[in-house]
Amino acid sequence: MNKYPRIYLSPPHMSGLEELYIKEAFASNWIAPLGPHVTAFEKEVAAYAGVKGALAVSSGTAAIHLALRLLGVGKGDIVFCSSLTFIGSVNPVLYLDAIPVFIDSEPESWNMSPIALEKAFKWAQELGKMPKAVIIVDLYGQSADFDSLLDICNHYGVPVVEDAAEAMGSTYKGKACGTFGKFGIYSFNGNKIITTSGGGMLLSDDTEALEKALYWATQARDKAPWYQHSEIGYNYRMSNIVAAIGRGQLTVLDERVKARRKVFERYKEALGNIPGVGFMPEANFGQANRWLTVMTLDPTETAVTPIQVIEELERDSIECRPVWKPMHLQPLFTDCMFFTHEDEISISDQLFACGICLPSGSSLTLDDQQRVIDCIKKSLKK
Ligand SMILES: *Cc1c(COP(=O)(O)O)cnc(C)c1O
User: Would the pLDDT of 2 be above 90?
Assistant: First the structure.
């Protein structure tokens, strides 16, 4: 048994207001399915991000699924995807029987490389088959380089879905992440910067498209006096209780961003001078929410591998994770195309090999963070 309580990677952090909103929902018996908190939460998120509309759904993955269907993605269509991401970015491509093609990261932001994206478009052009959509991820809460990426996508006339599941509260050139594509999505999964216990949001300036998504998200029920259906639909709507939690969380989002950025600064200050130790850079075009602090180890300078450090921390009951295993390396996607940032070098492979996600919760105490720092120092001395 460990004498210390477990330190989690990114646990939920409630403000107190969530419970009040839930009580209100109970008092009015608006438990489910919809209700006033859902509508209010959508309005508040849309206003926060600066878009015309938002649709509250059951997960970030569901929001991506709806976005791709709105863009007409179907059987056999190509969708360009960031390779360095969580599987939730890409599974919706498979739900629609479409084909993902993976794009490497660039070293400045770790997000989709404009160079690799351009290569993929040239390939598609030669093939005579353009992608139906490009899904661009804001990794670990850092914005992708949207001016460069959107220039390329606009040139080829292909719409973008911004997967800002990890980047709520982050900005690119002063504008909120989640607003750069034709559609954007947030996730409120349990480990994200704010959580509703589980949920997601689809964002867009196209309110007509959001109406269509609402129809699909509620089992595609036609306007008729009986239950009539002409299209395939899903049960994807967010409940009133879940939205109540979200409204409470939204009031503290900016505080949560500040707290996570401080967590990052303390790690960097304590560990950044150790030879071979680095951190995920912050690109000068935006402000990251630092959802997770990612430390890197240069294998030529450190005696231990990231997996060894993670195991050492686990022995002290500290939860850490490797960087996402890139999608092009997943058994599920062995047959898929992948375009690299440099000819013979995959940046996402390198990041996967050297990165460690550290406990980054906004409720992480100074003492607990010191425990993590001490344990990392100890493990690096081996
Ligand atoms: C969490 C996450 C998702 C999926 O969100 P869920 O709400 O868990 O479905 C999608 N993409 C990225 C990059 C994520 O981190």
Answer: no
* Domain assignment of residue 3, yes or no: no
* Three-state secondary structure call for residue 254: helix
In this prediction the pTM is: 0.97
Q: What pLDDT, on a 0 to 100 scale, did the predictor assign at position 19?
A: 95
Question: What element of type H or E holds 339?
Answer: strand 338-339
- Cα of 225 from ligand 1 centre, angstroms: 37
The answer, yes or no, to whether residue 1 has pLDDT greater than 60, is no
Tell the residue nearest (CA) to atom 8 of ligand 1.
Answer: 189
pLDDT of residue 381: 85
- Over residues 163-200, the pLDDT tens digits come to 999 999 999 999 999 999 999 999 999 999 999 999 99
Ligand 1 shell residues, CB under 6 Å: 59-61, 85-86, 88-89, 137, 163, 165-166, 187, 189, 200
Amino acid letter at 217?
A
Which structural domain, as residue segments, surrounds residue 197? 18-250
- CATH code: domain of residue 52: 3.40.640.10
> Could you tell me the CA-to-CA distances from 329 to 68, 77, 80, 90, 211 in Å, in that order?
23, 21, 16, 13, 37
How many Å apart are CA 327 and CA 332, to the nearest integer? Answer: 8
Tokens, residue 191: 């480990």
Distance CA(238)–CA(59), nearest Å, equals 8
